[in-house]
Amino acid sequence: MTWGLFNKSGKAKKTSLSGQVFLAFVCACAVVAVVVTAASAFVFQNAFLADEHSQLAGECETLCSLLDQTEDDPSVLASLSLGELRATLVAPDGRVLYDSSAEASTLPNHSDRPEVAAALAVGRGQSDRSSETLGYVSLYNAQRLGSGDVLRISVERASVVSFLSSDILLLTCLACAIVGVSWFVARALSAGITRPILEIDPAAEEADAPYEELDPLVNRLNDQHKQLVDRMSAIQDANDMRREFTSNVTHELKTPIAAISGASELIRDGICRPDDVQDFAGRIYKDAQRLSMLVNDILMLSKLDETERAGERSSLFGPLERVDLLSVAQDVCSRLERKAKKSGVKLKCEGVSTHIEGNAHLLDELVKNLVENAIRYNREGGRVFVWVLPIDGRPTLRVSDTGIGIPPESQEKVFERFYRVDKGRSRDMGGTGLGLAIVKHAANFHDADVSLESELGEGTTITVSF
Fold first, then answer.
1. Which DSSP letter does residue 12 get?
2. What is the fold, at CATH topology level, of the domain defined by 20-166?
3. Disulfide-capable partner of 276 in 79, 272, 295, 445 (CB 3.0 to 4.6 Å)?
4. CA-wise closest residue to 398 among 322, 334, 329
5. Is the predicted pLDDT of residue 134 greater than 60, yes or no?
6. Burial of 374: CB neighbours in 10 Å, binned 0-12, 13-18, 19+
7. CB 435, CB 265: distance < 8 Å
8. All residues at 6 or more sequence positions from 153 whose CB lies less than 8 Å from its CB, including other chains
9. Whole-number Å distance between alpha carbons of 381 and 403
10. Which of 231, 264, 53 is nearest to 143 (CA)?
11. Interatomic CA distance for residues 464 and 460, integer angstroms
């Protein structure tokens, strides 16, 4: 059954970092305790056996000195009290001549014993090997006598296994104490390690990583927090702009609708004189035209907004095509020539044929709005110049006028929707307040840059660089 690996929501349970650190530390302490105990036992035994061999060699040398002064070595050995030592006298051919622990005749030939072979060859030899008694090791030291025989003495000592098994209770208690202490230490350490991680505040503008290894994660959180703040700010700005736009649209629509409604009501009820009907009809037509222009501009901006949000330019305006910017500018100027003359403004268009990849309708709207603004905010007898030419390798459209100019405090705002420097003059001359906003978004559509230079009372120049 694996249901225990899941929580109530059916998701797999997450591993606890604190639990992992705690478990790893406890296991590490337990393993270290066992390894250190075993290693210490082996080191102790090796040191102990080395010391025993040294003592055994000294005792062997003393006995050899005594036997070298006598002729009946077996009798001398039999008369000595050797305690726990075992003495064995071996002839040069390996026969056992005497053994203090067993009948010599019953023992096999000892010429193959390492310590005996070494003593016969070089005069001295030693070895140690596990005895038949479990848990013990036998130490051997042999030395050649002057007679050619070999005296070997040995002693049995406890092995590591015997040493550990004899103190198993003590070692178990010690291991339990180590594990118990490590348990509490591991709890404190795991809590100390994880506490700074849990204290990381993802909502902070600049969270600090408590550990170097967490720098990439915390930096990523900081970046995501900044992106989220910027996105929320952009959403808030968009909402504010949408509310302001809706309010402005409502206000702008009310004026022509109210005028149309009032004039038509007077005509319907027969209140106006027959001589005034034509004047009222003219007002209705003028306001209807203004209303139509306003609706068209609003629809154009809505399409541009949707295109920018979607990031796909061809979805609403069709595929891009090769467009001659000079031809577009000349066509616009020819259409607005009559309006310019009516306003007492001279309109001139010059340049060289310059092709770009774009949307002809949007480019026409961009140029038309710039030229209309240049005419609308000009003075009688003023001039409007339209140039199309490459500047620094970039196709450029420049529209200049000798009009009223724009105050410095308003130059950053004129591209906002429904912003008017002179509201009364704009409405009187038929402006919707959306022309430069359309210019800005149409330029963005074509990845173009828009710059404005203006001096109050001297005129304005707007440059669009594609």
1. B
2. Beta-Lactamase (3.30.450)
3. 272
4. 329
5. no
6. buried
7. no
8. 56, 59, 60, 63, 82, 85, 86, 87, 88, 140, 141, 142
9. 10
10. 53
11. 13
DSSP 412-442: TTTTSTT--SSHHHHHHTT--S-HHHHHHHH
Q: Are 349 and 335 in contact (CB under 8 A)?
A: no
- Using the structure block, give the residue that is written with the tokens 């403004």: 345
User: What class does CATH assign to 208-319?
Assistant: mainly alpha
Intra-chain end-to-end CA distance of the chain, in Å? 68
pLDDT (tens digit per residue) in 310-327: 666 666 677 889 999 999
CA–CA gap between residue 115 and residue 124 (Å, rounded): 8
Say what the pLDDT of residue 251 is. Answer: 65
pLDDT in tens, 84-95: 889 999 999 999
Helical H runs in 311-348?
314-317, 325-342
Find tokens 């001096």 and name the residue.
455
Give the distance, in angstroms, between the CA of residue 52 and the centroid of all CA atoms in the same chain: 64
Going by the DSSP 8-state scheme, the letter that residue 387 receives in this structure is: E
For the chain, the helix, strand and coil percentages under 3-state DSSP, each to the nearest 5:
55, 15, 25
If you count them, how many residues does the chain have?
Answer: 466
Pair of tokens at residue 145: 């006598």
Model confidence at 248, in pLDDT bands (50, 70, 90)? Answer: low
Sequential DSSP letters for 197-252: HHT--TTSTT---SSGGGHHHHHHHHHHHHHHHHHHHHHHHHHHHHHHHHHHHHHH
pTM score of the predicted model:
0.47
Half-sphere exposure of 276 (CA within 13 A, CB side): 10
Domains 20-166 and 321-465 share a fold: no
* Assigned CATH class of 321-465: alpha beta
Residue 406 phi/psi, 5-degree rounding, is -125, 130
Residue 157's DSSP bridge partners are: 137
**What contacts 24+ positions apart, CB below 8 Å, involve 198-205?**
205/229
The CA angle 316-317-323, to the nearest 5 degrees, is 165
Core vs surface per residue 126-140: b (16+ CB within 10 A) or e: bbbeeeeeeeebbbb
- CA neighbours within 13 Å on the CB side: how many for 158? 10
Does 108 or 136 have the greater pLDDT score? 108
The backbone torsions φ and ψ at residue 325, rounded to the nearest 5 degrees and listed phi first, read -65, -35
What's the DSSP call for residue 106?
G
Residue keyed to tokens 């020819």: 334
